[in-house]
Amino acid sequence: MLNVVIFGAPGSGKGTQSKLIIKEFGLEHISTGDVLRTEMKNGTELGKIAKGYIEKGQLVPDELIIGMLAKVLDSIENKNGVIFDGFPRTIKQAEELKKMLNERKTDVKYAINLDVEEDELINRLLERGRLSGRSDDNLETIKNRLEVYHSQTAPVAGFYIKEGKHHTIKGVGTIEEIFERIKKKLCQTS
Q: Is 188 among the domain residues?
């Protein structure tokens, strides 16, 4: 299975590039946000527990998220692989994801890190906010989101570097240029 984790700071193009990777390599898309919403909407036991945390303004515990991801992974009929969107965000989550995948005789094969300078990220997010009207794309919120990324998610790169699976991709240029860099890396080492 070709299991890919894609990460990078807000505005680095993860969503855009994920869609292209999914189409090119025939992967399934697993978004933790989508999984949570589906579990809650369907009133599953995991969904009810998660809803309790969310209604109190708390983060859903990693173990619960992993349980939901495992359930989704087990239901996938397409065995080409998956791309994980929005997960892992911490080293602990990366460790839990590895354990869960290893129990299923698979693992993350690539951790693609989209590298974009902070000034460029801010400009992209401000432009996205201007075009889409997204209220979370304002300068103060953007700076807070970047701080959270640097303190919590960026260290995940170290986990995948130790695993030998980390690949930094320059996330500047046209969408097509960036995708070609990713595609070259995935094809080169697959």
A: no
